[in-house]
Amino acid sequence: MVVVRIKLFWMLKIGWFSLGLLPLVPFMFGYYFLSSPKWISDMKYLAFVAGTVTAVWFLCVLVAKWEALPGDDWKKCMAVLGSPLMGYFVGKNIVYITGPMLLAFVVGHSAELTLTVRESKSTRGCRSPVEFRELSFLFDKICNVPADIRQGVAPGEIVVVSGHGTNLGLFAASIKR
Q: With contact defined as beta carbons under 8 Å apart, do 19 and 91 qualify?
């Protein structure tokens, strides 16, 4: 009975971690998911709680497993100090991104979001981007936007992003001014 509970606990922990990293998979293959600003605004407290709980959990796990961690004390210390940041990011992503992304994938349809442009200048790792305000870190831009659209938008301008999704978020396919 105890063994079953321990296995279930580990499966839940691995599942929670996997849900937090799931939004990175489409991002790595060039599919850009954008949550709606209303969803981000409505869920900010829940995202903060999920991020904080996950950050504390990551920290506790690494401190408890200090002796089993590979490397010298310096590397262990850096891993322990960096774990809350990673944990916060994972927990926050589950609320802000994973939920709406899974809904968009399963029951999505043609949808549009109205977003405000933050900037449209190239950055390292993302050519020809358009970044938006009020969205979650790493999931606040679309890369490889055609030059005619990108150069025509200014910071503060409102654009319509369309794609496959729901009113909570979508996989971006096009931008209209």
A: no
Q: Which amino acid is at 119?
A: E
Gap between the Cα atoms of 173 and 156, Å rounded: 21
Predicted structure pTM score = 0.82
Q: In this structure, what token pair is assigned to residue 5? A: 């509970």
Residue 5 has phi, psi (to 5 degrees) of -65, -40
Q: In sequence order, which residues have a C-beta less than 8 Å from that of residue 111 and are 6 or more positions away?
A: 104, 162, 163, 164, 165, 166, 167, 170
With b for 16 or more beta-carbon neighbours within 10 A and e for fewer, the 87-109 pattern comes to: bbbbbbbbbbbbbbbeebeeebe
Per-residue tokens: 2: 């105890």
By C-alpha distance, which of 53, 58, 30, 40 is closest to 99? 40
Q: What is the pLDDT of residues 92-139, one digit of tens each?
A: 989 999 999 999 999 999 999 999 988 877 777 777 888 898 888 878
C-alpha 58/C-alpha 119 separation (Å) is: 34
* Residues near 44 by beta carbon (within 8 Å), at least 6 away in sequence: none
Strand partners, 119: 131
